[in-house]
Amino acid sequence: MATAIQENGMKPLTNKSLNHVNDVNNLDNANSCTEEKDNRLFDGQLQPYVDHAEKPHEETHEEPHEEPPELDIVINNVVCSFSVRCHLNLREIALNGSNVEYRRENGMITMKLRRPYTTASIWSSGKVTCTGATSEVQAKIAARRFARSLQKLGFKVRFNNYRVVNVLGTCSMPFAIKITSFSVHHKENADYEPELHPGVTYKLKEPKATLKIFSTGSVTVTAPNVAAVQAAIEHIYPLVYEFRKERTPEDELAFTTKKRKLGLNKRKRDEFLEDEPDLSYESMISDAEDTLNEVETDGSWD
């Protein structure tokens, strides 16, 4: 079976595609076609392939689209507040409570939890502020456990007016930043006073956040919630990227020292949480979730 080269590829030639011969007696003269005609036919069939081979291959160098690197945002502190809607006797809490410290000069009591590792500031008016959580979920769990602890001391506690007040997050850019040039270019929102603070204070209106930008590439964000922290980092990244620079040995040393310090603090905290728990205090809060409906409430616990 023969094959013919065509523009659209290789196609087998069957008997149906052969040319019809009218005069069988003249088959001996079938090869009498002129060489010029054969060459024209052959050249016409191969011309597209010859032209394609003669064309130089144009190499298209498309610049790869650089996607911004993934940045790790670490939530260091979530501050929340709530009210128990009753008067609290601070002296009684100091005498009968566990893990508490009475600060008479400030008119408040501090109470600590191990899991989650948080600290509450309690005032006699019934207002409680909780700090130290690393997520909004942990903050609410800690707040409810503090309220349950006060309820077990005999107070008519009602968990009310809970809200996340403040979130502190940090992020490390993969480059150093020219903070002087950055503050000059964005002077409408940036404030840089090297005599008072080593970083640039950048304030955002939408989302509402305050950022501290340092020359080492570290960025500290204070915002009303975790989502605002993430939005602030996404907003500031293209702005500081224009003023990036290579880290100097001093910046590398400061950056490494900071990371080592954070790692040491985290290790100490993990070792503290792995220690034998205070059974007297844990017994007071262990059944908090199981007995939420033990005392009559107005549904504000939800």
UniProtKB/TrEMBL annotation:
Acidic residues: compositionally biased ranges: 287-302
Region feature Disordered, mapped onto this chain: 1-22, 279-302
> Could you cite one Gene Ontology molecular function of this protein?
DNA binding
Q: Where in the cell is it found?
A: Cytoplasm; Nucleus
Tell me the organism: Acromyrmex heyeri
Family of the protein in this entry:
Belongs to the TBP family.
What protein does this entry describe? TATA box-binding protein-like 1
Keyword Transcription regulation, does the record have it? yes
The principal localisation class reads: cytoplasm
Q: Which domain of life is it from?
A: Eukaryota
Q: Which UniProt keywords apply?
A: Cytoplasm, DNA-binding, Nucleus, Transcription, Transcription regulation
Q: Which GO terms describe its cellular component?
A: cytoplasm; nucleus
Cross-referenced InterPro entries, in alphabetical order? Answer: TBP, TBP-like, TBP_dom_sf
Biological process annotations from GO: DNA-templated transcription initiation
The gene coding this protein: Tbpl1
